What we know:
- Helix content is about 35%, strand content about 35%.
- By secondary structure, it is of the alpha+beta class.
- The chain folds into two domains: about 5-125, Pnp Oxidase, Chain A (Roll); about 135-185, Hypothetical membrane protein ta0354_69_121 (Methane Monooxygenase Hydroxylase, Chain G, domain 1), CATH 1.20.58.290.
- The strands form two sheets. Strands 1-2-3-8-7-4 form a six-stranded antiparallel beta barrel. Strands 5-6 form a two-stranded antiparallel sheet.
- Strand 5 and strand 6 form a beta hairpin.
- The structure holds flavin mononucleotide.
- The site of flavin mononucleotide has 19 residues, from strand 2, strand 3, helix 1, helix 2 and helix 3.
Amino acid sequence: MIDTGDFGIHDGISEVIFTTLSKDGKPNAAPIGLHKKEERLFAMIYNSRTLENILGRPAAAANIVDDPVLFVQSSLCDLEPERFEYVDGFPVLKDALGWILFDCRCKKGEKISLVELSPVDGKINQRKIQPVNRGFNAVIESSIHATRYVVFKEKKYLDSIEYYNTIVKKCGGAREKEAMGMLYKLIGITE
Ligand SMILES: Cc1cc2nc3c(=O)[nH]c(=O)nc-3n(C[C@H](O)[C@H](O)[C@H](O)COP(=O)(O)O)c2cc1C
């Protein structure tokens, strides 16, 4: 019996990276909000490769990740195959602090689908003491705006990214700054 509280998953939305497997065996990774309400776990997923994979093979792993670069890469491009490892044939991220594997039940919507999640397995690789870093949080916010910018191409998303970049510059470390550099490159904008 997996207690998701042991993985730091509490009520509210935890930003994790979902790994899924396509019907033809290709792994995919994308940041997704893991919702917990009382004991119910679910995700709201827009039409995407993650959703397609879950519809084809109803399983997903929530990878708990603290690397800003991994968040940016998995938001905006494909991860290299060597970033994955396999547990009973299912992909998880090698650099995850831990992962929880879920069986999925999907209520398909036209634009967004509700995916109910039942934990079946999990592993904690590393427990870290980690103070809040505004630079890290700003990379996560920027990544969300970047995923919207690549779809809608609206200036308001670039303005938000620019604002969050001022926080990354002030509060982030080398990894956060590298992540922002990569984000700008992947959305085709000069910093
Ligand atoms: C922190 C963060 C949280 C996100 N949460 C969600 C989410 O809950 N649902 C969703 O559909 N997309 C979410 N996204 C956007 C997807 O990660 C993004 O659209 C991604 O490109 C989908 O990739 P895929 O087509 O490989 O599945 C989030 C992005 C970030 C950066």
